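Re: the multi-chain job from yesterday

Posting the exact lines I submitted so nobody has to dig through the queue logs.
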Amino acid sequence: MIIRHEGDGRWESVPVLAYKEAGNVFKDVTRQVLFEGSDQLPCQLRYFEVAPGGYSTLEKHQHVHLVVVFRGRGSVLIGSQVHSIEERDVVTIPSNTWHQFRATSDVPLGFLCLVNVIRDRPTLPTADDLRQLRSALLISGLFME
Amino acid sequence: MIIRHEGDGRWESVPVLAYKEAGNVFKDVTRQVLFEGSDQLPCQLRYFEVAPGGYSTLEKHQHVHLVVVFRGRGSVLIGSQVHSIEERDVVTIPSNTWHQFRATSDVPLGFLCLVNVIRDRPTLPTADDLRQLRSALLISGLFME
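And the result, structure tokens for all chains:
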């Protein structure tokens, strides 16, 4: 009933997993499942760690992410806005909203991410989506490559 | 969509609330609601902070708590066992299990606590429950007053 933190973003007996299957665009991300969900609390708690300079998949889906930054700093794209994030900030990713997490170049970005156990699969951007997103980010002066 | 941590277990624009209504037995606990829950993620994320020497209500209920220790250290009673807890440990409180969080005497104990939005009300121990619990804790050598 207690999973001990061993330091450095690792928990006792919790395997460090690949972030996603191949075929998605991401870089240097690991995943640990801290709570699988139960009948009485049908949510899954995962810990993701993005290595310095790494980033998660740019995607959107109907399910909501509730994120608490646990370690390091970085930025998050939500819709067409980029926000810097630091340890202990709380981030909500609304339904059907493009999002991507990035670590800064110097430290890893570790975050807790809560989702429903039952959830839809992410949608990846088409070439046209990417063009629109890049254009919106250029206008707002916050372009991320 | 981002709630900034201001340091010291406080978040921007998040009111620090009384832990519970009067009539419960607890000491020096505050509550902040970091996520109210939504249709797409019907969970509520709260941050509780127990001042040095303080403790939460001893209670049980059908709903499950998923807790991540965020700050300081202390102990948690789960059933008839007491466990020491430190920053970043993950604690699950199963259904219908007596539980109570306590800070050590020197530092506050801050923790994130996730629950379903729809949940049952806690049950408080009767004098008989307390007698049984004290007896079990004495036998296990981990008596908490």
